[in-house]
Amino acid sequence: MTYRIQGLEPGQFARFFASDEAELTHRVIAGEEGRYPCRVSLRDADPGDELVLTHFTNHAVDTPYRNAYAIYVRKDAGEAADYIDEMPPILRDRPIALRGYDAGGCLHTASLALQDDVDRVVRALLTDDRVAYVDAHNAMHGCFAARIERYDGADHD
User: Fold this and answer.
1) Which of 89, 93, 71 has the alpha carbon at shortest distance from 25?
2) Residue 157 burial by Cβ neighbours in a 10 Å radius (0-12, 13-18, 19+)
3) What is the C-alpha to C-alpha distance for residues 116 and 113, in angstroms, rounded to an integer?
4) Of these four, 19, 42, 55, 149, which has the most CB atoms within 10 Å of its CB?
5) Is 157's pLDDT higher than 70?
6) What pLDDT, in 10s, does the model give residues 103-142?
């Protein structure tokens, strides 16, 4: 089973860096003390990187499972990351909650990857044909990390 993980499109966050008055955002400078996982580049920010912490609807469905939470985005993230059959850095070396949704946006199943075993757990979830996609969340803080979708090799952009 092949899967694809793409970062969020950076253009939707550009306005947050253009104004000091962006609603529901905080400007952050990454420090040495912690992780600041960028949802565009799908990697942690380097110390000194400028980011915004903003409210983001990651699961915009008309079901009780609609979901929004705070996410980080690096100012200089550039293009959205694209990983095929490979885990991006923000899904490595941290506990990840994995939510398997059906085609209608309802939660079908879920699992935890507590070690560096997200790949194994994702593949197990995707063996169930009722799972249309998997949303990965940081297990400790609950924030959305990335969407994982089946990939057949065709360019879906």
Assistant:
1) 71
2) exposed
3) 7
4) 42
5) no
6) 999 999 999 999 899 999 999 999 999 999 999 999 999 9
Give the total number of structural domains in the chain: 1
**Buried b vs exposed e over 47-64: b needs ≥16 C-beta within 10 Å?**
eebebbbbebebbeeeee
In this structure, is residue 157 part of a structural domain?
Answer: no
Confidence of residue 1 (pLDDT cuts 50, 70, 90): confident
At residue 155, the pLDDT reads 64
Residue 155 lies in a domain: no
For 67-131, list the strands marked E by DSSP.
Answer: 67-74, 82-84, 96-101, 107-113
Quick one: which of 120, 102, 100, 101 has its CA closest to 110? Answer: 100
Domain that holds residue 111: 3-150
